## 1
Amino acid sequence: MLEAAGEVFAEHGFRDATIRDICARAGANLAAVNYHFGGKERLYAEVLKFADDRSMRGHALSADFNLLPAEAQLGAFVRQFMERIFDPSRPGWPDRVMAREMIDPTPALVELAEKNIKPRAQMLQSIVRRLIGEGVPDRVVQMCAASVVGQCLLYHKSKALMGHLMPALPLNDGENIDALTEHITRFSLAAIRAMVDDPMGGGT
């Protein structure tokens, strides 16, 4: 049911998707959505969570992650992120569902953020905080963390366009995750270290 619902939501969006279409694709009785989920809204929230949980499967951080220096933690975080979003075994519908959700958010996004995404965001901010020091405002830490995530997503979401405009970029296969991970990590570390000396950008 979740798989079928994900495909329908990806194609039509939350508002235009119908329970009838979802049940038909799942080969389920029309009452199944209400019986198992209590309605379309709850089903949609569970689809978002299912998609995120599925993307994390097989991409756990190493057991000694918490013992690593902050620089190595940043590299490990970036690698896990890149391996997860570039995983060739991932179905296409989760990305399309999330793209729709970012453009036209529903209340389910807040629930997904709190339950699934926030712990990862806090982990990245904690790594940045270790690198940048305690005297830097939270706003700067969060902007640095957002920039790390932004780089990772750019290589994935804009792969087709960037491959056309910048053909030397390593975007063609999974082995190039090594090159992308190294670049994003080095670039981010250099920027974060610069923030240590000038966290507010010249006092602005």
## 2
Amino acid sequence: MDKVVRDADVAVADASAGSSLAVGGFGLCGVPFALIEALHRKGVPDLSVVSNNCGTDGRGLGLLLDARQVRRVTASYIGENAEFARQYLSGEIEVELAPQGSLAERLRAGGAGIAAFYTPTGVGTMIAEGGLPLRYGPGGSVAVVSRARETREFGGRTYVLEEAIRCDFGLVRAARADRFGNCVFHAAARNFNPLCAMAGKVAIVEAEEVVPVGAIGPDEVQLPGAFVQRVVPVPPGAEKPIERLSLREEVR
């Protein structure tokens, strides 16, 4: 039952070429930096990544993009990552852009064992009708496009079918975790993290604090240990970068 492993390198040792990853975080908030850096050191190629976005240039998943370790990305937006945009538009990677709520529910459904679900989000757009550029070709041509999706009417309203997401690994950052894998997230760092853990066949949590079993009360648990296979203690003083540091002017 004790799921704590020595470090991030041990935790991702079985990740291999072509592995799929569900990675928590929003911008640089709640990103599993230690696990991403371990994958970078390992040099695993051809990764397929599912995440809200791909960090920023050189940080978070941007580190793997810079090293050309990513083959495909499913995300809600390109974000403030110029290298991500450049690789997509130049045809170096394949990108599936998904509505943020639909992406979150696809991850949750994958963890809950639900194969697919209907949603009104995307009806009447290229999400439902197909034709979104997934990969660009030479000179800005479109090499691969999204397929049309099934639609149905319920109660007089049209819905589009979205398939669940399951990945080989779920990479997560938690504020606290006990040795059985029960997790608590700090404020907005909760974002996609529980969903990515649920969607991973092997969920790996890097925790800023690892506490004894029982230190986290049942009502405090935001991700049950049943979804978690490995827990990695984050080294003390590890950096938690901010995308844009904004300071309020002093009021006198």
## 3
Amino acid sequence: MSSVILKNLVKSYDGKKNIIDNIDLKIKDKEFIVLVGSSGCGKSTILRLISGLEEITSGEIFVDGEKVNNVHPKDRDIAFVFQSYALYPHMSVYENIAFGLKMRKYDKFYINNKVQSVAKALNLQDLLERKPKQLSGGQRQRVALGRAIVRNPKVFLMDEPLSNLDANLRIQMRSEIKKLHKELQTTFIYVTHDQTEALTMGDRIVVLDKGKIQQVDTPENIYNKPNNKFVAGFIGQMNFIDAYIENNNFEINGGIFTTTLNRNGKIIVGIRAEKMTEGDINIFVKPEIIEMTGSERIAYFKLNGNTCSARLPLEYKIEENLNLKLSVNNMYFFDINTGDIITNEKKL
């Protein structure tokens, strides 16, 4: 069982502000879990703490049921795939993949069989004699994966492994990594700042902000049932509109909406960009910018003074004024002070 458990995990430098702030997380055996958040949120630091590359300030880490706080990194049976690939430039592909096994004193016959098997799985068998400088970015990334896979570790840690690749190659490598996870049946902990990677790859997603977990859930629930304004805004394209509720009614650019919220005063209304034309209340706005993406157009405009956007099919009519069609059933409501969700009237 290759579970990973973090209990009251804290990391700070020189006793200053916590980079990781009292995190509790249970990662199941064979799970593919994605840590996502903006730069500086602590996601890469969590990987380094799990691997032992950095010491924790307080708390506990368990791998496969064993507390590893004081276990040396090489004895944790964890493989780390870095953003920079971290290949040895003077070694061939074969030697890079075999390096970990050589350090563990396996015999040459065993090493050769393992390297050849992994190379075939990653389509590297014709590149084994090349040096890293002779490889493309995607090939280098596969070598880095091969070096990790060949050890059969309990846990794979991956720190933004696709960030240096172009868009098309990223899509291809996402599929390859998911396929590897299915074949290896091992726990994967994957860090990214890319919401598409998070949504398409993770069994569960951990959304982080300023060293704290904001939500842990399936991709579907993270997208459709966000806990707060941060999660709603980080995953997907969400518009946030200042509004004032009185007697269950609120106004957006002249349109009046009725809700069951049991409160009066200022709130924040959230509505996703793809839901701006799926309602029964018409609102007209003047587009400020229109972007063509190929499969759709994105229009930018103001609602109650807030900059918002709508994702529109190519056939959607855009004249001097854009006709939006909004529904309260597609809206989320957030507390203006805490950012926490008040209620979710979206009908799933």
## 4
Amino acid sequence: MKRIPSGIPGMDELIEGGFLEGSATLVSGGAGCGKSIFCTQFLYNGAKDYGEPGIFITLEEGPTNIWWNMQRFHWDITKLQTEKKLKIYRFGMYDPAVFANKIDDELKKIQEMVEEMGAKRLVIDSTTAFGLWLEKEQMIRHTIFKISESLKKLGCTTLLTAETNGKKDVYSAFGVEEFAVDGIVMLYFVPPNRSIFVRKMRGTNHDKRVHPFDITDKGVTVHSKDEIMWESLH
């Protein structure tokens, strides 16, 4: 089984060298814990260091805001965009009454972008946003499963974010995302400390401990040799 390097220092030591090629992993945590930065770094370093084009699909922030966020780490995304190795795409904004009927159209657009770029990496930020457009929980669950299965068919290695209430034993927003993916990476922020825990990773003998990580002007760095006690997380 081929492993896809995460592009995040220290992360691959926790997951046998990287994410399984073509897998879908949920990156969950409370507000401000670093989910979007983690995923953006996965895309940026994937394109820069490994020549793997990637697409950042946002359901919340506009492309300009995401571009600003990348700039704070001095990442030269303009070059990668020009070379068609990195693309930011905002999921269509629809009235909640018609959103469910537009999912197939959006998935088709994503497929066309993947084929045009030869994309190998995808990020969906965030699955929690589906709750803004879909009122019934059953429809939310159906949509998340549908999107997850459709993305797997594209052959890309995908990260999806989900915002939780920040509690250590809550892994998703709707209680279904964790069943639609191959892996779960939990990020925690208990000021002033940040930590990471690999909750699940199919086909991988992943690390079972909680580790600290930092966000610096270069992005996320996981301290795989250090450990944080589970009891210290709220």
